[in-house]
UniProtKB/TrEMBL annotation:
Keywords attached to this entry: Aminotransferase, Pyridoxal phosphate, Transferase
Membrane-spanning residues: none
PANTHER family, per the entry: ADENOSYLMETHIONINE-8-AMINO-7-OXONONANOATE AMINOTRANSFERASE
Protein name: Aspartate aminotransferase family protein
GO MF term (any one): adenosylmethionine-8-amino-7-oxononanoate transaminase activity
Protein's UniProt keywords contain Transferase: yes
Source organism (scientific name): Rhizobium quercicola
Keyword Magnesium on entry: no
NCBIfam families per the UniProt record, alphabetical: PRK06105.1
Length: 445
């Protein structure tokens, strides 16, 4: 494709390296230039409007162009645009948000540590897990278990827990301390006649077998998303989390729940932990914590997790870790206001009320000759397609056609994923899925 000289498209190709693309192909195709946003919509530089069916990157809960957030950001920029929380320093916005998160937590939590992304937060949890094991005099208890198709970020440690081969290829990942168990894809991998409960017990049995094979004294933690999102939206079957937690408690393995996508209302409760009855030792939050208006993430930890780390820092003389932007005053001020908006406008309730329509429309689409099945919970869902002769291409074809119809969604192999802003209305859900139905007809032809 040819772009006008000095156009934003041409300059983008010339100067900018992008994530999650075939970089050589990108040099030929260029990008869709998004110029502004309003509510659930974004607009490109030609004025075309799109329903943002993935809330940006699973994250813009309150929609685009929320003036309350820009006003708070400006006010904080004018008052204190930046300060750190290193070495006995603090400021109001980070304290206020930490207090709010502790009050909101679905289980008793002791402390909050702020970072700037989910990847960064999960990476730090691994680092602290190793620090804690040393503090407890268990230097061998360092292995981390993730799941196939799980997603926890792209740093060296978080990328190693992630269970997606494309994120490991040519990066020399995963690290040798990381292990993986199966994705709880009941619809795709259940044995003939196997009930959801039986499947969940089999998944827990696989986890127990791995812990025993590795040695319980060598396994520190299990990482899991309440709903596996970036791997293709896999909703846990009945009893899954109860069975998994029983195994973890039996062998004193800590549970780290990655709420980066599920948190702040996506599953119909404030946290995915509440939807599925999960009791974490550590929670990782990001994305909808600030609707991604500013980079922000948070690690919530129990006293059982925090206490040994604090003791070890006293022995060593310091907790030798820190990020320049941890607890950034503008980001934490925006995060707190974003949570106020979610609560005041009952966006969690909006998710609960609209979920039956959202999931019903997905199920209707699954009856299309080109489709195979659908799955979801709350306002996150996926439509799985029958593969083309060349597998893995159907999702990309539907994604491209959906954009022509004015909907942005996310293709993952032969699956198209949806995760719209929590402010979406029933009418807008109908419009979005009507467009997807037309796109399905087109790729079928």
């Amino acid at each position: 494709m040819t772009f006008l000289p000095n156009s934003i498209e041409a300059r983008d190709i010339a100067y900018q390296m992008h994530p999650l693309v075939d970089l050589k192909n990108y040099e030929k195709t260029g990008a869709l230039v998004i110029e502004r946003g309003e509510g659930i919509y974004v607009f490109d530089n030609n004025g075309k409007r799109y329903i943002e069916g993935l809330a940006g990157l699973w994250s813009v809960a309150v929609g685009f162009g929320e003036k309350r957030l820009s006003d708070v950001a400006k006010a904080q920029m004018d008052k204190l645009p930046y300060y750190h929380i290193f070495s006995h320093k603090t400021h109001g916005p980070s304290v206020d948000l930490a207090e709010k998160l502790i009050q909101m937590a679905p289980v008793p939590m002791s402390k909050v540590h702020f970072t700037s992304s989910g990847s960064e937060a999960n990476d730090l949890v691994v680092k602290m897990m190793w620090y804690r094991s040393n503090a407890l005099g268990k230097p061998e208890k360092k292995k981390i278990i993730g799941r196939v198709k799980g997603y926890h970020g792209v740093t060296i440690a978080a990328g190693s827990i992630t269970g997606l081969p494309r994120n490991h290829a040519s990066f020399d990942l995963p690290l040798d301390r990381m292990r993986h168990v199966s994705c709880p894809d009941y619809a795709g991998t259940a044995l003939p006649g196997e009930s959801e409960i039986a499947f969940s017990r089999r998944m827990a049995g696989e986890l127990e077998d791995l812990i025993l094979a590795e040695g319980p004294d060598t396994v520190a933690a299990f990482f899991g998303e309440p709903v596996m999102a970036s791997g293709g939206v896999y909703v846990p079957p009945e009893g899954y989390w109860q069975e998994i937690q029983a195994v973890l408690r039996k062998y004193e393995v800590m549970l780290v729940v990655d709420e980066v996508i599920c948190g702040f209302g996506r599953t119909g409760e404030m946290f995915g932990c509440q939807t599925f009855g999960i009791e974490p030792d550590v929670m990782v939050l990001s994305k909808q914590i600030s609707s991604s208006y500013l980079p922000l993430s948070a690690i919530l930890m129990t006293e059982d997790f925090y206490g040994p780390i604090a003791e070890e820092s006293a022995r060593v003389g310091t907790f030798g870790h820190g990020y320049t932007a941890s607890g950034h005053p503008v980001a934490t001020a925006v995060g707190l206001e974003n949570i106020r908006i979610i609560e005041e406008r009952d966006l969690v309730g909006n998710c609960r009320r609209l979920s039956p329509l959202f999931l019903a429309r997905l199920a209707d689409l699954a009856r299309h000759p080109r489709a195979k099945s659908s799955r979801g919970v709350g306002l996150i869902g996926a439509l799985e397609l029958k593969p083309f002769a060349e597998g893995g291409k159907a999702g990309a074809a539907l994604q491209a056609r959906a954009m022509e119809e004015g909907v942005i969604a996310r293709a993952i192999g032969d699956t198209l994923c949806f995760c719209p802003p929590l402010i979406i209305t029933a009418e807008q859900i109908e419009t979005m899925f009507d467009a997807i139905a037309r796109a399905l007809d087109t790729i079928s032809e």
